Amino acid sequence: MAHPFVSLTPGTLLAPVPAVMVSCALPGQKPNIVTIAWAGTINSDPPMCSISVRKERFSHDIIRDSGEFVINLCGQEQLKGMDFCGVKSGRDTDKFAACGFAPVPVPGFTAPAVGECPLYLACRVTSVQELGSHDLFLGKVEQMGVRPDLIDEAGRIDFGKARLVAYNHGNYYALGEALGFFGYSVAAPDVLERRMKQLKSGK
Amino acid sequence: MAHPFVSLTPGTLLAPVPAVMVSCALPGQKPNIVTIAWAGTINSDPPMCSISVRKERFSHDIIRDSGEFVINLCGQEQLKGMDFCGVKSGRDTDKFAACGFAPVPVPGFTAPAVGECPLYLACRVTSVQELGSHDLFLGKVEQMGVRPDLIDEAGRIDFGKARLVAYNHGNYYALGEALGFFGYSVAAPDVLERRMKQLKSGK
Fold it and tell me: Cα separation of B39 and B53, whole Å?
């Protein structure tokens, strides 16, 4: 078989990735927001996340010195502000004010959550690793909160309502058609039919 | 202002995240595929990725002992196989054969890429960190390849054609409407209009 791939210079082409706002603060100072696409879940038990931040970003030293960061998931309603927080610097802009975002206290944290966002994960830094252009911060999720309007009658989080945004090679996208659920490829026919129907109806 | 968030038990709710197939192999043995959602870009220069793998997964020791892993981005056409590779174990299933995937050699790597996937990033492991349920593998991207049909007349990669899949809280989604490009919130009106038109037309 012929080699079907065209070789490329190595780059950052893993996609789609999340696009999240990371809020941070030092005691007695204005909080800041930095937009991050190099973010992910790295452990399930205990729940842990990582974010990678360029050393020259204003938020870098705040996160390093405070030892905490708050990941705010981003819905379509927050997209313009999220993009803005990715291009402007907290050195000369109060991003909460400029975007009209409400800083909301997180129990035990100096950094506030972004009040308009669907869900936040407040993380305590466990390590910082220098990788080159970015420093990799690992953190343990210590507090998590969800916007009340995303909880349905049954007490479950309705993630569809969050209208989350994905980042794909320089562009932001809505999540589109639901294609399947984890395990759908081996599900029994009746389970598959029932759950796919639920999924397509947005439940 | 009242606290607008409902507190939740900390969990792995960062979303959307990528859903990728990671291929791996030891010399002289059949290659394996494991599906990973705890994956991300962690550094731009040099390009680096991380994946988190449970110790009990068959691929865990293969990746640790070989010191390499290949991230294969997943399009809608590969979704059923990708889901299958997340629920079955390579201990008792030849996943390349079961899914009809072609193992394609990657220069300098023992692990093959998945021939059907839009793009692969072959990574050399630089560290392994025990976090609890998962081990975090960091890797440097050393080889990257793209399917030739994704390269357009101008020699650029047409990422829209890849039809990548996102993972959002247990379900797989197509990428939907294009909402903006990095920097759109501060773009000049003429740039904004031109680029949004391009984006909406899928270019």
Answer: 9
User: In angstroms, what CA-CA distances link A186 with A182, B31, B72, B92, B96?
Assistant: 9, 22, 21, 15, 16
Q: Work out whether the CA dihedral B64, B69, B74, B77 comes out positive or negative.
A: negative
For residue B191, what is the enclosing H or E element? Answer: helix B189-200
Q: Which residues of B touch A93 (CB under 8 A)?
A: none
Average pLDDT, chain B: 95
**DSSP character at residue A139:** E
Q: What is the pLDDT of residues B29-54, one digit of tens each?
A: 999 999 999 999 999 999 999 999 99
Say yes or no for a CB contact (<8 Å) between A40 and B14: yes
Do B47 and A120 count as a contact with CB atoms less than 8 A apart?
A: no
Contact pairs from chain A to chain B, CB under 8 Å: 316
Contact (CB, 8 A) for B159 and A167:
no
**In chain A, alpha helices (H):** 58-66, 79-87, 95-99, 189-200
Q: Is residue A83 left, alpha or beta, with left meaning phi > 0 and alpha meaning psi from -120 to 50? A: alpha
Please state, in angstroms and rounded to a whole number, the distance separating the CA atoms of residues A145 and A150: 11
Residue B1: pLDDT over 60 = no
Tell me whether strands B68-72 and B165-168 are parallel, antiparallel or unpaired. unpaired
Mean pLDDT by 10 residues, chain A (203 residues): 82 96 97 97 98 97 98 97 94 94 97 97 98 98 96 90 95 96 96 94 74
CA nearest to A172, candidates B73, B183, B12: B183
Task: Look at residues B103, B105, B141 and name the one whose alpha carbon lies nearest to residue B122.
Answer: B141
CA-to-CA distance for A34 and A31, rounded, in angstroms?
10
Q: What is the complex's ipTM, to 2 decimals?
A: 0.96
Q: B102 and A4: CB-CB below 8 Å?
A: yes
0.90 surpassed by pTM: yes
